[in-house]
């Protein structure tokens, strides 16, 4: 799994203008079995997307199509992650 941690590059008002498109993009990832979870940081300086992919290259490839990225509204940091405890320990794509 990969945590994709975004940082907004523009004021929140500009990010929110593209939010519906971003959420639709995430919905597509969910339908494809790639999205485990996602949400906005609090305070809203960016977000976190948890992807069920095996490599950083694949995680970056997937997120390159995010409207926040294509619109130059946010950047993502990729962090590989393997759950060791809790609800996601035995998680598999549905």
UniProtKB/TrEMBL annotation:
Q: Which residues cross the membrane?
A: none
| Domain annotation YCII-related: ranges | 1-80
- Identify the stretch annotated as signal peptide in this record: none
**Family listed:** Belongs to the YciI family.
Its recorded name reads YCII-related domain-containing protein
Recorded source organism is Mangrovihabitans endophyticus
């Amino acid at each position: 799994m990969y945590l994709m941690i975004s940082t907004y590059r523009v004021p929140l008002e500009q990010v929110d203008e593209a939010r519906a498109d971003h959420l639709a993009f995430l919905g597509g990832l969910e339908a494809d079995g790639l999205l485990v979870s996602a949400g906005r940081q609090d305070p809203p300086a960016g977000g976190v997307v948890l992807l069920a992919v095996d490599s950083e290259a694949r995680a970056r490839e997937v997120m390159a199509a995010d409207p926040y990225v294509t619109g130059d509204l946010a950047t993502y940091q990729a962090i590989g992650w393997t759950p060791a405890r809790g609800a996601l320990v035995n998680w598999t794509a549905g």
